Amino acid sequence: MFALLSRTAYRLHEIDPAAWGTIGEAEWEKIAFVDGGNASIIKTPAAELQRIRTAVVTTKKNRLTGAAQKEGYLLAKLQPDSSGKIQCMAELTESTLEISSSELSSIGLESPGNGESTAALAKFCETARRISELNTASNAARRQRGGFIVLDGTLEAFNAAEMKAMKELMAAAADNKVIIGAVAKTCSLLTNSGESLTSAADGISEGKDGYVIVAEGISERHKAAVAAARLNSSSSYLFRIEAATAEDMKKLLPELKSQSNDLAFPGYPYGMLMADRFARISNADAELTKTKMRATATAEVKALLKHEKALDAHSILDRM
Fold first, then answer.
1. How far apart are the first and last CA of the chain?
2. Residue 49 and residue 75: Cα distance in Å, rounded?
3. Which of 4, 18, 72, 90 is most exposed, with the fewest beta carbons within 10 Å of its own?
4. What's the pTM?
């Protein structure tokens, strides 16, 4: 049984009981966990205003040693250029996010088809948030000597702008001997038998903590070892975890396991829990932000709110 991934982009490893590995002992290295959150504040067919936040949380010997947040507002608008092609114009306001205007302009817009403009705008904002996360991790790597930096999600780059930011992160990490990893909250990968990857890994684990490397990425967009791991034997959850190499994975997993005993979520690293908490923008936060904006709206925001009515009928019915 194998992960359902392209053999031209990945070196696949068989998922069988003999491949299930044990996790070694932690050396209690410093770890910086990086996560991001975003929420739509105003959405129209041709524009979207999002609030974006990134967070970096540092731990040492299972204790929180630091936490920092950065955030801002991103307004993305669809506009035709002189040839009639739809482009995305974006600007940040009230922002401390680690993303430049040139990086924003380098994000390609997925061509919106009929009725798909809002999806294209949402994807643009997601990419901007992701680049902010990668830049936050790069700056953390430049300040750190040794240890680990762990991202939320994956080490895969989904477009040219993300690939550039990922390469800069890996270069900064190599300069300071920092190991880069990632932990995904969810995993949608399947096996060639149609089973979910984490379910297949659970089936060979015998309920023990440990891991199985299922693939090693060999393409430019995803050079990483991909594993399914259980970080606490009392947990029913397995997570997709990545590191730049299989050797890095062996070093990373003990550190993650050492802080996966939190009663709030056994089997999930404490640092990732805290990074998520600091980065998350709740629905209540988003609604409060929107209410404040209505009260102090500029002419541009008032225009957006007027056009929002093209999309908000469902939300009104949902509240009835």
1. 49
2. 4
3. 18
4. 0.91
